[in-house]
Amino acid sequence: MAGLLLGWLLLGIIMLRARLGQASGGTTQKLDFGSWFGLGLQGLGFGLAWGWSGRGDVGLVSSLPTSAQWLLALLLTALAVASALFAGAAVRELGKQWSLTARVLEGHELVTSGPFRRVRHPIYSALLGLLVATALVRSSLPLCLLAIAIYVLGTHLRAAREERLLSTMFGARYEAYARRVPRLLPRISPAPSPGA
């Protein structure tokens, strides 16, 4: 549980630093509040992952023999911390363009470097990693699966709205990027170069 909290604390610090260090994000050219419905679904997924039932002792980790608990706890700690660091790298790449709401700014740039070489939405990927780690520690297996399904649905809705804005702004360049790079889960093979 301590490793899980470490991952969440690290993510919180990264996001807070990014938000506080963000200058005025520039003039918003287009804004899409429709992505907030997806954000609500993502939040519901996290509520389920944290064990909405109120029983925090039903997670997969607590149901295993003690020796296996240690191994799984280490793996889940690594997943939580790696997810937080992946999100941090994505926030740094986005810079002033990072926002909770789907938007494009005046002078908006298409970011395809860093974590964006692996997935189009690395922050959502990182949050999925944290959700899985959290659910395996805090929830029952059925709640874990439901949490993942609801989170992925919310993420799909948010990502689709963001991609619509980016496609409108960057046209064929964004479409080529979207064909080359998966939305949420990275491919096992090495990422293709931007010119491929």
Beta strand count: 2
Q: From the coordinates shown, what is the CATH architecture?
A: Up-down Bundle
Low-confidence stretches: none
Radius of gyration from the CA trace?
18 Å
Counting helices, strands and paired strands, the structural category is mainly alpha
**How does the overall form come out from the CA principal axes?**
elongated
Description:
With 196 residues, the protein is mainly alpha-helical. It has one domain (32-180): Four Helix Bundle (Hemerythrin (Met), subunit A) (Up-down Bundle), CATH 1.20.120. Helices cover 61% and strands 5% of the residues. The protein contains 6 helices and 2 strands. It has a two-stranded antiparallel ribbon. Helix 1 packs parallel to helix 3 (66-94). The longest helix has 30 residues, at 141-170. The protein is elongated, with a radius of gyration of 18 Å.
Quick gist of this model?
This protein is mainly alpha-helical. Helices cover 61% and strands 5% of the residues. It has one domain (32-180): Four Helix Bundle (Hemerythrin (Met), subunit A), CATH 1.20.120.1630.
